[in-house]
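Possible regression after last week's pipeline update?

I re-ran a chain I had predicted before the update to compare outputs. Posting the input and the new output here so someone can diff against the archived version. Not blocking, just want to make sure nothing changed silently.
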Amino acid sequence: MCYLSKLNRSKILNINVFGFLLALFLILTFYNLDTIKTGYLNQARYEVTDGTEYRYFYQPEVLDEVEINKILEKYRELSLPEDRNTADVADLPALDMIVQVYGSDWTGIRDVSAEQFYQDRADIIRSAQEEAGSSRKGNSNGTFAAASLSEPIRMGYAEGWKNVNSGMNQCVFIVLILISILLIPIFNEDETLGVDGLVKSTRFGKRKLSRVRIINAFQLSSLLYLAAVAIYITPIFFMYGLQGADLPIQSSPQFFLSMVEVNYFEQFLINLVIGYVAISLMTGITLLISVLVTQVYTGYALLLFTIAISYAIQMSEVFFVKHYVGNFLPMQIAEFNSYYTSFEPYGGISTIIAVPSITVAVLFVLLLFFPRWINKMRFTS
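New output (post-update):
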């Protein structure tokens, strides 16, 4: 069994191909790093060239009453968003957060207390929840609910974690595509080589071989995913550092209105797990397609059709289709940022909990019956 598993793994992904893929990931990672630096450069601030300068600008602080009123008084006459780039670099995060609460016109807004500011923020969040049809009222309990919307937000430098988390969906997307390409031929090898009848005539037929192939598929997809993530995060952390791992994601203007109360390190772990769920689901779908077809090219055509349908569903304006089908497709599952900004729950359960949990349950049922279904439909000895 061990020998059969080792032999089959080498057929799916031999060491040379694996090395080539790792080299490809490394090239794409450095390209992504260059894109990140270009993004900072395009902010048109002479103080910032690649983002590492924020280490000196973003000092540990709290968005409290003193900081809020300082920003209000300092930039009250500023024409926003046109003149945003004229503000001090160190003030930009707080400035963007205040704009999200009070808009760009601050006339008449003076002496704001921290309690009032965070209450206004909470009102905006609750309004968005109600608009999205959320059944949750007031504060929610649980690990991923913002238990205290009135607590001042800690701020500081965390560019390494921000860049890793913001671009991780691209890393997962590449792995999804590669896994699909590698696994489509997995159940068509015997027909291609003309040994299908010979394998079926053996003592166990294709039962044991099918089981080994399923196990190998998930082993290799897991290995490829973890290797890709390791290669992806290393240069970014090397350049931007690991500082700010304990800061809440609300310290970033992008997630200032998020109800998911986690820090950047926890966000990375959540993304890592959800990414693995997406990878596993794609592996299962690809194996299913491989079983349904007898020709490899037909399998690739069906895979492309499936991906096209997935994108069409995601782009659909029909809420039911997008909410109950599109959100559970591998490509959409890997859109990590949506989990932290969405206010659309499933029966009162947050999207960040509901989508991965339901996906894992479906995948478990699929894997439970998959081997039996293979033997019954196609590989009966």
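Follow-up from reviewer: compared with the archived run. DSSP finds 16 helices and two strands in the chain. Marking as no regression found.
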